[in-house]
Amino acid sequence: MKLSTEFKIGITVIVAIGLAYWGINFMQGNDIFKKERSYYAIYTKVNGLVVSNPVSVNGFSVGLVKDIKFLDSRGDQIIVEFAIKNKNIQIYEDSKFKIFSSDLLGSKGVDIIMGESTVIAQIGDTLEGDIEQDLAEAVNAQIAPLKNKAEELLSKVTDAVVTVESIFDNEAKENLSASFDKIRESFVSFSNTAKNIDALVALEKPKIDSIFSDFQLIVENIRKNGDNIDTFFSNMADISDSLQQSNLNEAIRNAAVSLDKLSEMIDNVNEGNGTIGKLMYNDSLYNSLVSTSTQLDSLFNDMQAHPKRYIHFSVFGKKDKQVKLSKKDVETIRQSLKD
Residue 139 pairs with which residues in a beta bridge? Predict the structure, then answer.
C-alpha cells in the first residue's frame, strides 16, 4: 500500500506536536508517561514558590509543584497543586506540605512532613500547608534582640555622656575639687588618728599586757577547777530537780491566798469594820473607859476620906447602924456598875 505525501506530512506534524508537548512538560518536570497523584494545600503566601519546584520527603525528591493559583478573587488564599510521581511513597491524611528555602539564593522547595496517622490520604485531598521562615526573616529574628540591646546600650551611653558633660562644667568642677579637698582632709585626719592610737597603744602596752596576763590566769584557773565547776553545776542541777519535784508551786499558791486574806482583813480594819476596826476608829469605847476610870477614882477617894460610910464594925455586939449613902454616891456606884 502506497502512502500519499499528504498522509506522511500529517503523521509527521502529529508526531512533532506530541514530541513538543512531551518536551515542554518534561522541561517543566511533568512526565506525561508516568502515573502521578495530585494533592492540594492552601497558603496565605508562598514566598516565591513557582511551578516545577521540587517536592521531597526527607530531602528525597518524590514530585513537583504542578499548579499555583488564587483560591478566590480577593487573593487572600493561594491553592497549590502537588504532583507526587513516586509510587512507593504514601501520603497520610495528617501530613503537611511545608515550603522552605532550598538554597541561599532564595530557591524554594516543598518538604512533606509525615504525621502520625495511619490513614492514607485520598488522591485529590487538600492537606495542611506550612511555611518555613526565609533567610531574611530568620536573620531578622536573630538580629532583632541584638538591635534592641544595641539601642538600649546607645541610650545608656548617651545618658552617660550627658552626665559626664554635666559633671565637668565649671560649677561641677569646683564642687568636685572641694570634694577632693574634703577627702584629702579626711585622710589626713584618719592618719593623725591612727598615729594617736599607735601612741596610746605604746603608752598603755604594759597595762594591756597585764590585762592579757590576768585573763590568761583566769583561763588557767578555770581549766584547773574544771572538776569543781562541773560539780557545782551538777549540784545546781540536783537542786533544780529537787525544787521541781517538791510541792513548791502549791506552797506559793497557799502563800498567795494567805496574803490575799491578810490584805482583805487589813482593808476591813482600815474601813472600820469588825472589833479591831471599831477599836481603832471609834472613840466611844475610849471615852467610856476614861469616864469609868474617873468615877472609880472618885469613889476610891471618897472611900478613903469616909470609910465609915461603906464599912462598919461592931466590937461589942451592938446593932450595926445602917450606912447611909448620899444620892450622889448611889448614882456614882450605879453608873460604875452599869459601865
Answer: none
